[in-house]
Every structure is written in C-alpha cells, then in structure tokens.
Design brief:
The structure holds 2 protein chains of 2 kinds.
Chain A (H helix, E strand, L loop, with lengths): L1 E6 L9 E6 L9 H11 L18 E4 L2 E4 L12 E4 L6 E3 L2 E2 L2 H9 L19 H5 L18 H5 L7 H11 L7 H8 L13 H5 L6 H16 L1
Parallel strand pairs in A: 1-5
Antiparallel strand pairs in A: 1-2, 3-4, 3-5, 6-7
Helix pairs in contact in A: 2-5, 5-8
Chain B lengths: L6 H28 L5 H8 L4 H27 L3 H28 L1
The chains are: A alpha+beta, B mainly alpha.
Chain lengths: 231, 110
Amino acid sequence: MQFLIYRYDPQSGARPHMQAYDLAPGHGEHMLLDALIRLHEQDDSLAFRRSCREGVCGSDAMNINGRNGLACVTPLASLKEPVTLRPLPSFPVIRDLVVDMTRFFRHYHAIRPYVVDDDPPPERERLQTPAERAELDGLYECILCACCTGFCPSYWWNPERYLGPAALLQAMRFIADSRDHATGERLEFLDDAYRLFRCRSIMNCTEVCPKGLNPNRAIDRIRMRMLKHEV
Amino acid sequence: MKSVLTGLRAWTVQRVSAAYLLFFLLFALAWVAVHHPMSEAQWRAWVTSGGMREATMLFFAALLAHMWVGLRDVVLDYVKPLLVRTAVLGVLALGLAALGSWTALILIRA
C-alpha cells in the first residue's frame, strides 16, 4: 500500500512536506493504526499518538484521505491509495501527526464538565430515574478525540472563541443531567455571539464522529433549552 | 447587559423573520396568481389596502433584520481586525437603515 504522510519537525527548521511510504500490510493487520505502527518500525522519526487501539481513547485522531477519523478503527481495505494522512485541521502541529490539544481542552473545561450540585452529599449516591438517565444517551459516549471540532468550518474561522462541537456536546451532556443544578448558569454562559452561536449547522461534526454521535443535534437541543429558559 | 441582537436573540430574530418572509411570500404569490393578470393600479390598490401596507412594511422590516443577522455573521467570521470590523458593521447598519427608511417612505407615500 502507498501512503503519503504529513511530516513536520519544528526543530529541524525545514518546511512541512508530504513523505511517501510503501508498506505491505502483514497478516492480521487490518486497521490503519496497524500500518502506522509498522511504518514507525521502519522510520522511527514518524510521530503519532495512540493508546487503546480500539476506538476508546481517541488519541489517534487524524485526517485520513481528507476526512477526520480514528486510525485504530479505520479499516485499511476502506482506504483509497495513496492513503493521505495529515494532522487534524486547524490544530497547531507539534510534530508530524501530533497536534496541540491545549485550546481544545481549554474550551472543554470552560463548559464545566462536571455535575454542579452544592447540596450536601447524600449518604450513598445521587439517584436518577431510568428516563432521566436516558437523557444522557448520545451525549456521554463522546471520547473527546476532536475529530468533529477539527472538521468544523466554524471552528476553523473562530478557533479561539467558538467552543466547537465536542465541547458543546459535552455542555449538553451536563445541561441534560438531572443531578446538575447549574442549568441556568450553563445556558447563560453559552448565550453570546461566539461560544455556541457560531455554529452554522454545517454538520461536518455529525458526518465524521467515529462514535456515531450527533453534536449538531446536541447544539440544537441547547438552543431549544435556551429558548425555553429565556421565555 | 446582553446585546439586543447577539446570541439567542439574533438567532431567534433570524428564524422568526425567515418564517414570516416565507409566509408573506407564499401569500403574495398566491394572491397574485389568483388575480392574474393584474394591472399596476390594481397591484397598487392591493398593496395599500387595509392591513396590507402594514404587512408589507413588516415584510421589509423582517427582511432587513434577517439580512443584518446574516451579514453580521459573515463579518464576525471573516473580518478579524476590530477597527475594520466595526467600520464594516457600521457601513452595513447605515446601508440597511437607509434601505429601510427608503422602503418605509415609498410605502407611506403609496
């Protein structure tokens, strides 16, 4: 298989370039991450992140043939050659396919990704009904891989002030949580020109989410909750 | 204090105005289709008839509000330097206000 991989080493002083590789996938190597690990054995200067190898940690998000995805759950058989690999768009590149996630996690922390409840802790746990728990389905599964945020044109235009689909999906996860007591504050925080309302419903986020989630739907749900809150 | 036309409010204005624009356009097209062919005098009498003048004014007000939110979105996305952005938004606001005043004048005098 032929691969074209984005290479950039800031310490070398050289400009970024695409490097060609040839590789014959071995027995049992079905996923793109398997191929990357083999390529790394050939060329140990090639940098990429990986951890769980099964689509749970979200470390190996990258742009694969023009679409963001996770290398570990992308079958090699599904890819057209040459397989072109680039870092996540709009993220500052640290080296090769490794990007700086600082801004992404700053936006994530801004939405307060934890249940806010100032009441005294109960003796055992804060209970939910099955229906209340079901409200979190389609939200809690996000692994923060940033495939959606890195593929969102609104984020490309306003990466500093627009929170991006991943952070907004997480915001809805806590707005929808029956145990959270800060819904009003959360909605008011998001009600400005940039944090949420730069979303133009382009839906690239939903298109590329490797977990099959729908951040666009979550953003719509926040808007509807805001509207009810305002009325 | 929240700005009148930002965040949720701007989004609501854009959606409500879009709904009214669609409703008015469908209504006007249906009326024109039913009364076809229509002379200029008949058309003028219809536009200035009771309630229709106000509905037309509301249509243009909705159109201008819709344009303002849409154009402001484009400016926020693409024009980054604050001074240039303020100038562009100012020119846009003045242009839309002038268009609105002109339209109101035409409808009042008709």
